[in-house]
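User: My advisor asked me to double-check a structure prediction for Winged helix-turn-helix transcriptional regulator before group meeting. I don't want to rely on an old file, so could you generate it fresh from this sequence?
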Amino acid sequence: MVESPVIPGRPCSIAATLHVAGDRWSLLAMREILFGNRRFSQIARNTGAPRDRLAVRLKSLVAEGILEKREYQATRFEYHFTDAGKDLLTVLISLMTWGDRWMADDPPMILEHHGHRIQPAMVCRTCGQGVGGNDLHLVSHAPGWTMSGPDTHPDTHKDTLQPS
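Assistant: Sure, here is a fresh prediction for Winged helix-turn-helix transcriptional regulator from the sequence you gave:
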């Protein structure tokens, strides 16, 4: 298990993930690798990222275990997803799906699965049922925190909150 970075505010896996992989150039670099563009020049061209920033982001993604570098020629490398990076693909596809629905009149890219357009859905791995926002029951599990914020009464039990 990887130790979570120290981030101000509520202890949260979303914050930790964004700290590691949530900036624009990291996400766009991962998009390009998803699309099969694994070489630095391809990633730079297709993201529009400044080359120096992109180099730093790719180095960080490698250091964090999201990407790995594989040599394809002497001193030339391609970037590939690790298992941790592959697990982020659902996040990228969800971002794309949300953007297609709310930010684009006509989606610029369509992802297909077995010949049909993919319609991602959240499904519980335990019971196999679809999950919507009203199905979630959040439980504060971070020491010293409740769902509403820092626990000012540490002797009380953990609280829960239903999302709206």
